[in-house]
Design goal:
transmembrane; 279 residues; Serine/threonine phosphatase stp; Phosphatase 2c, domain 1; 5-stranded antiparallel beta sheet
């Protein structure tokens, strides 16, 4: 007499099992293009700012793994809007790529598209964002940068800096090395940290792109960070964290914890992305 009472439970169990199988199949489909071997972690803090102007995203396809970080210019209006548009445009264009051989051209195309879109949304109001983007494809690192956000490789306890900051200081250094100005004139210029190129700028020139991809070794860590990170954490502090045998996510969280612990009076938005080549 108790057998019929089991039927509803068996039906429910069969339904749940079917749902689990469908979910598993969906995950396999979603991850069918995933490239194994790249571990990703990120961390972010608003600092002492009223708004989070940093924006970032990552994506993986058959052509590789991309990470994009944009730091909206807080001194201008619509920093958050500009950084969001820039990152979204880069991710969107990367997802359209048919082949990894198109990666170098992708940076130029995405930068001009995002600059145009930002200017259209600003409607004459001043605004903009820095941007650093990297793509890891078949153990090679491609990158593009504009502004003062940076990317670097942490390899065997050493940092390999990748891009140049697009600030007046860089131009002053070139003029000093050329003998056009003195060292004091270079160091004492009050505008030395002013951006000279960024997205959302009507005079946008171009995005700095790697001349050739950088071969990565197993264990290399590629770090992207906004100025709120590298102006607050020393290289020694970064080295100590990145040398630990922990996941990229845990390392990124530790970096942010160090920043927040210092409680600097003018702490800027800070964002860090870490990609580890674990193949």
């Amino acid at each position: 007499m108790e057998e019929p009472q089991l039927v509803p439970y068996l039906i429910v169990l069969a339904f749940i099992t079917s749902l689990l199988l469908l979910f598993y199949a969906r995950q396999l489909l979603l991850n069918r293009d995933a490239r194994p071997g790249i571990r990703i972690g990120n961390g972010q803090t608003i600092g002492r700012r009223e708004e989070q102007d940093d924006y970032f995203s990552t994506a993986t396809t058959l052509n590789g793994t991309i990470a994009v970080l944009a730091d909206g210019i807080s001194g201008l209006a619509n920093g958050r809007m500009a950084s969001t548009i820039a990152v979204t445009a880069f991710i969107r264009e990367f997802l359209k790529l048919d082949s990894a051989k198109d990666i170098p051209l992708f940076f130029t195309k995405a930068s001009y598209l995002s600059n145009t879109e930002i200017l259209r949304n600003l409607k004459g109001i001043r605004g903009g964002t820095t941007l650093i983007a990297v793509v890891i494809s078949d153990d090679y690192l491609y990158w593009g940068a504009v502004g003062d956000s940076i990317a670097m490789i942490f390899r065997d306890g050493e940092f390999i800096y990748i891009n140049q900051k697009h600030i007046l200081e860089s131009m002053l250094e070139d003029r000093y090395l050329a003998g056009e100005i003195t060292k004091d004139e270079m160091l004492d210029n009050p505008m030395r940290n002013r951006l000279i190129n960024y997205l959302g700028y009507e005079g946008f020139k171009n995005i700095e792109i790697c001349k050739k991809p950088i071969p990565l070794n197993k264990g290399d860590k590629v770090i992207l960070c906004s100025d709120g990170v590298y102006n607050s954490v020393t290289e020694m502090e970064l080295e100590k964290i990145l040398s630990k045998n922990i996941s990229p996510y845990d390392a990124a969280q530790e970096i942010i914890e160090v920043i927040e612990y210092k409680r600097l009076r003018n702490q800027d938005n800070a964002t860090v992305i870490i990609l580890e080549n674990s193949r």
